[in-house]
Design goal:
about 300 residues, alpha/beta, Rossmann fold, eight-stranded parallel beta sheet, 8 strands, globular
């Protein structure tokens, strides 16, 4: 897979609830990309327990770059800055970066929006499935406009489920979200403890378990490839859209500055005249001096 991009594909593995297999997925997905897809991977462990980073560090060295990072949860602003700084620092030089994080309410949704793919593990119990749906739906509701622009993938991972687990009928409340998908399930491993710190699921001696995790890894590989294609289109349409936004913001800043200099800060509507303003020639004259045309056309009142 060709992942030669200026920026790595960033994957966040998160849920607000612990014990859903986040760290197991993070460590073993990093191993799958490194071993089976020959991709340069950076694993960023934000959890205090450091489970995924300890597993990857103590197991045989397979070339995954492992980092432990802390988020300062003093307030939302500081938390966002520290989280973004860690991802930016530890993703450098990688083709794919994987962040393992138990979601904290202090952290802004803007951090989740920074990622190309968000994996949300969940068990098959009705309570946890409902909790996962609520977590994703609340995020989508708050950031629907941004999600429509950046086309981020949100992937629900049925984790630690029995081998007879059926995807049909699961997480139906998420069906309307276009970029939300359910991954192949990751089966419960009775002998999981024999892998921790020793080996990885995709290459372990348990053939059924290895095949199961490799199916999950192949699904993620396809999503990474799809995301790469989407990012190329975003670099074309998204950049032009951003330029338009920047242009409008710039115009508004210029307008406010000139209005302040002319003693009319806040614009025309801030100081309404007692008499209806009569249109003058410089409103429509593009050659009029710039300081006299400080109200942009799209802000002028329509007759």
């Amino acid at each position: 897979m060709n992942t030669q991009l200026n920026e790595p594909i960033k994957i966040l593995i998160t849920n607000q609830k612990g014990g859903v297999g986040k760290s197991t997925i993070a460590a073993n997905l990093a191993a799958y990309f490194a071993l089976q897809e020959n991709i340069g991977v950076s694993l960023i462990d934000f959890d205090k327990q450091g489970s995924s980073s300890r597993w990857t560090k103590k197991a045989p060295d397979i070339g995954v770059r492992v980092h432990c990072a802390e988020i300062n949860y003093e307030n939302s602003g500081i938390a966002l800055l520290s989280a973004r700084a860690a991802v930016r620092k530890y993703s450098l030089g990688a083709q794919i970066s994987i962040s393992d994080l138990t979601w904290h309410p202090t952290l802004s949704d803007d951090f989740m929006l920074d990622f190309d793919i968000v994996l949300v593990p969940s068990s098959g119990s009705k309570f946890e499935m409902a909790s996962t749906e609520i977590f994703i739906l609340e995020y989508a509701q708050r950031r629907m406009a941004r999600l429509a622009v950046n086309k981020q993938f949100i992937l629900v991972v049925p984790s630690r489920v029995e081998s007879n687990y059926a995807l049909h009928g699961a997480f139906t409340n998420l069906d309307f979200l276009m970029n939300c998908h359910i991954t192949p399930p990751i089966h419960r491993a009775a002998d999981l403890d024999s892998y921790v710190y020793e080996d990885f699921l995709c290459v372990g001696a348990n053939q059924a378990l290895a095949e199961n995790f490799c199916n999950f890894g192949k699904f993620l590989t396809k999503k990474v490839e799809e995301r790469m294609i989407i990012r190329k289109s975003l670099s074309l349409t998204g950049t032009s859209l951003n330029r338009e936004i920047v242009k409008k913001v710039s115009v508004l800043d210029d307008y406010r500055e000139r209005a302040k200099e002319l003693g009319m800060y806040g614009g025309y509507a801030a100081k309404p005249s007692l008499e209806r303003r009569q249109p003058s020639s410089f409103d429509a004259d593009p050659a009029a001096p710039r300081e006299r045309r400080f109200i942009p056309a799209f802000l002028r009142r329509l007759k």
